[in-house]
Amino acid sequence: MYPQMTLWLAANRIDPSKQPIEIAGTEPYIVGGHCQAGYWIDDGRKTTLEGLFAAGDVAGGVPYKFVSGCWAEGVIAARTVVEYVKNVELGEVDDEHVEKEIDRVYMPMRKSGGVRPNKLEQELQDMMDKYAGGIPEYYEMDEARLKIAQKELQKLAERTKDISAENTHELMLAHDMIDKIEVAQVLVEHLLFRKETRWPAYQTRLDYPKMDDENWLCFVNSRRDPKTRKIDVFKVPYKQMVPGDRYKG
Ligand SMILES: Cc1cc2nc3c(=O)[nH]c(=O)nc-3n(C[C@H](O)[C@H](O)[C@H](O)COP(=O)(O)OP(=O)(O)OC[C@H]3O[C@@H](n4cnc5c(N)ncnc54)[C@H](O)[C@@H]3O)c2cc1C
User: Fold this and answer.
1) Which helix (H) or strand (E) holds 227?
2) Is 220 found in the same domain as 124?
3) For a substitution probing ligand 1, which of 5, 39, 58, 67 has the most ligand atoms within 8 Å of its CB?
4) In this predicted structure, which of 37-41, 73-77, 84-88, 177-181 has the lowest mean pLDDT?
């Protein structure tokens, strides 16, 4: 999987069959295919937003799918989309809406000065690592630190109003940053909401170190109000998809 690792071993004259190698376990991550985070989908991979489908790492509620599972989900989603588009009627294009979108997308390139995307990226990464259970914290978190993350994210979100880009590559990074901060905000709300440790090493709540099936054998979902920007977090019952799984016989 990692050709650069072979080069590194050769450059450092290490033969891993003879000499043990020091490692640090950093595999877990919260957003993506190894975990359950992502858009809420039905069996056909349709999201709760009309016309939007999700497969692979962005599809939520389906842990440990890996590359092969992502491919399988892609096929499932594609089949659903083919059926869906048969009944889609194209509406009129709203020119005013298109103009507004062009303004929104190109705004960072029309600004001089302002904050550059890589600066915000570094700050976001450092802050999330420290207060929202990143690698240096061994994926451990508690309410006090998550509340700090909440506040810091609000400040970062406000600073995206001043984000600037010198070229189209930076423009892409600028929008990446705006979206990443939004994802981080939602993530922190979820981490605060689940008052248990469901999956140690991915999400360890030091203030609630035990798994609590009585209250938390469920999904945690959220919706963000597009107008007020408020994130509403709520429980969705656990649904058994495969008979005989580890929870229900
Ligand atoms: C460190 C690590 C180790 C892993 N190890 C393994 C392993 O050993 N075995 C295994 O099977 N799986 C492994 N996985 C998981 C696996 O890599 C992922 O589950 C899988 O690659 C996800 O595939 P995907 O197509 O859903 O998403 P991605 O591969 O992330 O593809 C999404 C694509 O969309 C692009 N994109 C994003 N936004 C936009 C936009 N606005 N416009 C256009 N394009 C956009 C991105 O650039 C990206 O190319 C690992 C993952 C990580 C992070």
Assistant:
1) none
2) yes
3) 67
4) 37-41
Angle at 56 between CA 54 and CA 60, to 5 degrees: 65
Report the residue among 70, 71, 105 best suited for mutation to probe ligand 1: largest number of ligand atoms under 8 A from its CB: 70
Domain assignment present for residue 104? The answer is no
Which residue minimizes the CA distance to atom 33 of ligand 1? 57
Tokens 């349709």 identify what position? 46
Q: What is the pTM of this model?
A: 0.86
**Residue 32 binned pLDDT confidence (cut-offs 50, 70, 90):** low
Give the residue whose CA is nearest to atom 39 of ligand 1. Answer: 176
pLDDT at 26: 66
Q: What is the mean pLDDT of residues 173-192?
A: 96
Do residues 153 and 193 share a domain? yes
Question: With a 6 A CB cut-off, is 28 part of the ligand 1 pocket?
Answer: no
Task: Report the DSSP pairing between strands 204-205 and 218-224.
Answer: unpaired
**CATH number of the structural domain spanning residue 189:** 1.20.58.100
Ligand 1 neighbour 67 (Cβ under 6 A): yes
Same domain, 78 and 168: no
Q: Domain span at residue 25?
A: 21-88
DSSP states of 144-174 as a string?
A: HHHHHHHHHHHHHHHHGGGB--SSHHHHHHH
Nearest CA to ligand 1 atom 5: 66
Single out the residue in 42, 71, 88 at which a domain terminates: 88
Task: Specify the residue with its C-alpha closest to ligand 1, atom 42.
Answer: 172
| Residue with the two structure tokens 């994210």 | 153
Total count of domains within the chain: 2
Chain segment 196-240, per-residue pLDDT in tens = 998 887 889 999 999 999 999 999 999 999 899 999 999 999 877
